[in-house]
């Protein structure tokens, strides 16, 4: 690729890395001076293959993600022969390169693991499963913060088979793959990601893989049986956590919610042991609350969410009452699902309520059909203000339990464009 201005917007510089179907270059936004990474994919090598569907899925997924520990997709550009991903530039490079120089201290490992779990938990909350988590897919920015990247093998809830509620596509990197994937009987996307996080934590603190063998089948047997040992220098709390992360039975493997309450995990750093205050801040970071009252609707953002500490029945009753006042049809489909239809059938939206913690639920609104303009006019400008009393307000909680100094979440809408 020749150096120069890409689409008149980006200066293209040195090659950062390359694979079988893509190359990544350093770039700079000409107008703002911002450093970016530009992933260039050759269309001729992917058209007509499964990789094309992976690329489309990766674009859709990355456009929905906005988290401080996930590489951000700024823009997608295309011409007849190439596709260009303009993404966040992580100056520190791969985490793999750092750990290859020697194992990390438990404190440093904890810092990266906390950031990893924050990002993975955010993805799972949005129904996205990475399925290829490994140090090579974890970058570090100039501030030393971890950034998850490469969502090419990710899965979304739509790919789950309705008959068993599981994923079935075999994917991942051998040393990081979960035992249930090897069984070929289907698997839960969240639990396989947790397993991979456990392998990563082991590698960071030990400096080598827990399951390793020059013979691939021999390594798979070790993984399937869960045969590994923790080095003697690891603390007992860390050994216990690794044992739960690398539990071969996915049904009893530790969950994200259990991880964030683990004693070793909570020591210092990003997640301090602050009870309800900590829980709220963790989940608050997952949600783009600022977009709730945004005047413009971006279909790339998959609906809207807010936290509430009201009961499900109270939330639905309030929605039904407010909808009735605006002549909006309201149909309760399940215990925690309500469909809304505009007065003229000009939009259809679905409200889903899911339990997040014992005290909090997440109310998610998705536009299912019709005109976004009508949805904006009725939902955002008329219906949502009537529901403002449902939104969880940490400032109303006792001062000793909740720290409200970091309540505001900065969020910028994703911009994904295609230029021919």
From TrEMBL:
<keyword id="KW-0418">Kinase</keyword>
<dbReference type="InterPro" id="IPR000719">
    <property type="entry name" value="Prot_kinase_dom"/>
</dbReference>
<feature type="compositionally biased region" description="Acidic residues">
    <location>
        <begin position="400"/>
        <end position="410"/>
    </location>
</feature>
<dbReference type="Pfam" id="PF03822">
    <property type="entry name" value="NAF"/>
</dbReference>
<keyword id="KW-0723">Serine/threonine-protein kinase</keyword>
<keyword id="KW-0808">Transferase</keyword>
<dbReference type="GO" id="GO:0007165">
    <property type="term" value="P:signal transduction"/>
</dbReference>
<keyword id="KW-0547">Nucleotide-binding</keyword>
<dbReference type="InterPro" id="IPR011009">
    <property type="entry name" value="Kinase-like_dom_sf"/>
</dbReference>
<protein>
    <recommendedName>
        <fullName>Protein kinase domain-containing protein</fullName>
    </recommendedName>
</protein>
<feature type="domain" description="Protein kinase">
    <location>
        <begin position="10"/>
        <end position="265"/>
    </location>
</feature>
<feature type="region of interest" description="Disordered">
    <location>
        <begin position="396"/>
        <end position="420"/>
    </location>
</feature>
<dbReference type="InterPro" id="IPR017441">
    <property type="entry name" value="Protein_kinase_ATP_BS"/>
</dbReference>
<dbReference type="Pfam" id="PF00069">
    <property type="entry name" value="Pkinase"/>
</dbReference>
<dbReference type="InterPro" id="IPR004041">
    <property type="entry name" value="NAF_dom"/>
</dbReference>
<dbReference type="GO" id="GO:0004674">
    <property type="term" value="F:protein serine/threonine kinase activity"/>
</dbReference>
<comment type="similarity">
    <text>Belongs to the protein kinase superfamily. CAMK Ser/Thr protein kinase family. SNF1 subfamily.</text>
</comment>
<dbReference type="GO" id="GO:0005524">
    <property type="term" value="F:ATP binding"/>
</dbReference>
<dbReference type="InterPro" id="IPR008271">
    <property type="entry name" value="Ser/Thr_kinase_AS"/>
</dbReference>
<keyword id="KW-0067">ATP-binding</keyword>
<feature type="binding site">
    <location>
        <position position="39"/>
    </location>
    <ligand>
        <name>ATP</name>
    </ligand>
</feature>
């Amino acid at each position: 690729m020749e150096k120069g201005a890409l689409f008149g917007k980006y200066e293209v510089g040195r090659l950062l890395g390359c694979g079988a179907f893509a190359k990544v270059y350093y770039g700079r936004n000409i107008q703002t001076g911002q450093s970016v990474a530009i992933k260039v994919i050759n269309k001729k090598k992917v058209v007509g293959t499964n990789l094309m569907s992976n690329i489309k899925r990766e674009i859709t997924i990355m456009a929905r993600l906005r988290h401080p520990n996930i590489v951000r997709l700024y823009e997608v550009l295309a011409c007849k022969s190439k596709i260009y991903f303009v993404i966040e530039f992580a100056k520190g490079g791969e985490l793999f390169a750092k750990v290859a120089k020697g194992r990390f201290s438990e404190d440093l490992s904890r810092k990266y693991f906390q950031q990893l779990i924050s990002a993975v938990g955010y993805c799972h909350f949005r129904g996205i499963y990475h399925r290829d988590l490994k140090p090579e897919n974890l970058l570090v920015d100039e501030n030393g913060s971890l950034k998850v990247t490469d969502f090419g093998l990710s899965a979304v809830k739509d790919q789950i088979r309705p008959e068993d509620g599981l994923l079935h596509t075999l994917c991942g990197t051998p040393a990081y793959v979960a035992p249930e994937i090897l069984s070929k009987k289907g698997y839960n996307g969240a639990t396989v990601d947790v397993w991979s996080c456990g392998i990563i934590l082991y590698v960071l603190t030990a400096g080598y893989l827990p399951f390793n063998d020059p013979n691939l089948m021999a390594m798979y047997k070790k993984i399937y049986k869960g045969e590994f040992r923790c080095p003697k220098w690891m603390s007992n709390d860390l050994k216990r956590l690794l044992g739960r992360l690398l539990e071969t039975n996915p049904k009893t493997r530790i969950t994200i919610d259990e991880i964030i309450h683990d004693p070793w995990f909570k020591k210092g750093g990003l997640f301090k042991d602050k009870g309800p205050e900590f829980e709220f801040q963790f989940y608050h970071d997952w949600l783009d609350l600022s977009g709730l009252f945004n005047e413009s609707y971006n279909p790339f953002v998959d609906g809207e969410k807010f936290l509430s500490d009201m009961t499900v029945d109270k939330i639905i009753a309030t929605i039904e009452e407010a909808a009735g006042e605006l002549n909006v049809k309201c149909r309760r489909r399940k215990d925690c699902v309500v469909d809304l239809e505009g007065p003229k059938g000009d939009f259809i939206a679905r409200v889903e309520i899911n339990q997040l913690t014992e005290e909090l639920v997440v109310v998610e609104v998705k536009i299912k059909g019709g005109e976004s303009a009508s949805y904006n006019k009725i939902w955002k400008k008329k219906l949502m203000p009537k529901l403002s009393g449902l939104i969880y307000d940490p400032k109303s909680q006792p001062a000793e339990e909740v720290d409200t100094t970091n309540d505001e979440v900065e969020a910028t809408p994703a911009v994904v464009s295609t230029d021919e």
